[in-house]
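Q: What would this complex look like in 3D?
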Amino acid sequence: MTEFVIILIIIAILVALGFGLIGMVKGGKEGSDKMFKSLVTRVSLSVLLFILVLFSGYMGWIEPNIIMVDAPIAQK
Amino acid sequence: MNEEEYYVPEGTYWPIIGSIGVSTLFVGFANQMHGAEWGGSVMALGFAITVFMMFGWFGQVVNESTSGIYNKQVDRSFRWGMSWFIFSEVMFFAAFFGALFYARQLSVPWLGGADNNIFTPDLWNAFSASWHQMAFLAPGSVTDTALQSGTVMSFPVVPASGIETATPAMVVNPWGLPALNTALLLASGVTLTYAHHALRAGNRNQIVGWLVATIALGAAFLGFQIMEYGHAYQEGLKLTSGIYGSTFYMLTGFHGFHVTVGVIMLTVILYRVQKGHFNADNHFGFEGVAWYWHFVDVVWLGLFVFVYWL
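A: Here is my prediction, written as structure tokens for the whole assembly.
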């Protein structure tokens, strides 16, 4: 469930970024406004996502990927 | 210049100088990697030529822009040019994220015997189909200081049969530097948004302040990333550490390179803001760089979530 929400927010961030791009390509007052609003949305969603990921990790809803060095001594 | 005309610049030598600079840089770099003594000097020369080209080419475009020879049509061309550049960037990172998902979800499990198990019998006997266990360490090579500081923790590992195992360890702790770096980059996204707002409101002092903060946060990110690499490398996570090592360094390395480029671009924009090149209605240079920075920020968020968490 948490993973689903996280991925949903990531998609929303990408959509906001995409709208920002459309605004930038359009240009002019209207395009500039659209770009700025979209980027504000993307920043807000990103902060929300970061807090959600850390909180979910803290609560144990998601487990971090452990980057391990293990090892067979394989050079022989 | 009126609406009907289109400004076509004269032929310029900057692209060929750029090509020579970048080629020299890479010839030097490749030979440096192969242990050639002259590699470093050639690299430095290539870097100098590239920087010279950037000053020259950027300067020329800025001069053309401030002298008023660009009209709306040229403005539109710049916007479309930027969007094609962005398209190539999106494809670039999409390929790397694709590689991450393919290796993690499909190829590694297949090699490990999932599905029809067809590959497994012929594998090298030391192969273990594990996503995060990637390095080959000699016993005792995980340092005591790293263990005590908590950045490296012991973990149980099931060894491949018949193979002696060394101390397993956790090299990268998602709660440590990766989380700090995410916070730094997110904060830089916020400060850049404030700079953008200040520009639209026409407040130059505020733009400068917020831009300086953005550049400082980006530079701090890069500093911590270098620290993280040093630490991971010391503990045995290298480009050669199997598919995980390759994917990890490819993604984070190219991202770091993009942050570096972004910091350079923001610095140029800061200089241009101080020179008064932009106003509330006409600031495409700023918009292009701002979007690029937001994009690099989002790529990192994706990395943080998919490499370190999900």
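A: To summarize the key features: Chain B touches chain A through 71 residues (CB under 8 Å). DSSP finds eight helices and one strand in chain B.
Q: Very helpful, thank you.
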